[in-house]
Every structure is written in C-alpha cells, then in structure tokens.
Amino acid sequence: MNTFLQSVGAVLTTGLKATVELHGLGDGKIKLLYTPDIGPTPEKSSEAVVQLRSAIAKPMVVSGTPEEIEEAFAELIASKAAVVRRGLSALDEIERLATKAVDEAKSKPAAKAASTAPAVGESEDRDDEADSDADSEASGHRAPVATEVTGNSATNF
Amino acid sequence: MAVSILTLSRLFRFAGRDLPDPDPSMEPMDVLKHYARQFPRLNGGKLIDPINEGDSQVYEFRQGNFGDRG
User: Fold this and answer.
1) Best mutation site among B12, B31, B37, B63 for testing chain A: the one with the most A CBs within 10 Å?
2) pLDDT tens digits along B22-53
3) A130-138 long-range CB contacts below 8 Å, 24 or more apart?
4) What are the angstrom distances between the C-alpha of A153 and each of A127, A143, A156?
5) CA distances from A40 to A84, A93, A133 (A)
6) Residue A146: which pLDDT band, with cuts at 50, 70 and 90?
7) A61: nearest CB among B19, B25, B35
C-alpha cells in the first residue's frame, strides 16, 4: 500500500500544485481536503471556461479515521487526478481553438481589405470619369463608399 | 399534509458570474479563499450576506477595495 505522500507524489506532475488541508472532527476522525491549484483564471475567460476551471479545482473531501483515509486515499486521489488531467487537456484544446479562431478572424479582414482596396480605387476612377465636368476635385477627396455608390449607379443607368 | 424540507443550494457570484459551490461543508469565507486562487482580485475580498433566489442561496463576492474611499 502506498503512503499518503507516495500517492500525492504519483499524481502531481511537473508544475502542478495542490493544497492539502486537514481538520480534526473528534472521535479520532479527520477530514481531508485535497484542492488542485490550477492557477488564476484569465480575466476575459468565457463562461464555459470559468465553469470548467471551477469544476477542475473543486476540492476532494474525505472524512473518516486516518487508517480508513490512508487506505482509500491512493484510489481516490488517482481518480481525482484523472479528472484534473482530462479537464486541463480540455482547457488546452479550448484555448488552442480560440487562438486559431482569433488568428483566422484577424487574417480575414486584412485579406478582405486587400481585395476590396483596388475596387475602391477603380470606382473612384470611374466616378471621376463620370463626373469629369462638375466638381470633380471635391468628389475625389470624399469618402470612397459614397463615391462608389454614385459611380455604380451612374454606370448602371 | 406531509412536510418536505427543502435544502437551499449555495451559489457564489463574482463579477456577474455564478460560481458553483466547491463543497457544501466549506464555510463561505473558505469558499472565498478557495476562489481567490482562481481569481486573484478576490484576495482580501468581501463576502456579502446571502440573498435567496429560487432554491439557491446566493453569496456575492466583492473585491477588497470595492466601495472603500478615503
């Protein structure tokens, strides 16, 4: 049978921290709280991430005589550690997907802007051609969207 | 008529987020300390008296410097 520290040592991988708290209950019984420390939750985490992190960091509470706890502890802590591992890998996956989504969202507007930029220029040219007689200088310096609309409508008609 | 006793579940609220009860046997202040590990802004935070919402007893956590002046 593993000792208490051997059981804890078996599940604490590099960088993982945990707090063990003991309370005396009387009649030779004790209560043990094992709380995994998964570090601070990022400020702008989604609701799902906050709930998941809360679930992972939920303490494992065992009460009984020291002998009873010692006997069952290895098994209990192994199951708790499995939950923590699964939860942390799910968090990693969520973070990876979120980063990917952000990167994609960032690259899309840039690509869009690159593809639309020449179109605006073209429309400005068309507009200038259409309104060559009247106030051509003023329309050339105005907002591109407005000039694009008038330019297109002019060519449609 | 049979009387049924309802037990109110606890819920902890911080910054508009509802956090689950980590352990019903924990004192609310211990729950505050527990969540301070995940939300460092809760270090030195305050616990507001609970209010009842449906079948839940809602405790609110506030940051330590919340409302302090002078």
Assistant:
1) B37
2) 998 889 999 999 999 999 999 999 999 999 88
3) A130/A154, A130/A155
4) 10, 16, 5
5) 15, 18, 66
6) very low
7) B25
pTM of the model: 0.64
Tens digit of pLDDT for each residue in A16-64?
A: 889 899 999 999 999 998 998 888 988 888 888 898 899 888 899 899 9
CA B30 to chain A, closest CA, distance in angstroms equals: 12
* Chain-chain contact of B23 with A53 (C-beta, under 8 angstroms): no
- Compare CB distances from A41 to B23, B26, B39 and report the shortest one's residue: B39
Strands (DSSP E) along chain A, which ranges?
17-26, 29-37, 60-64
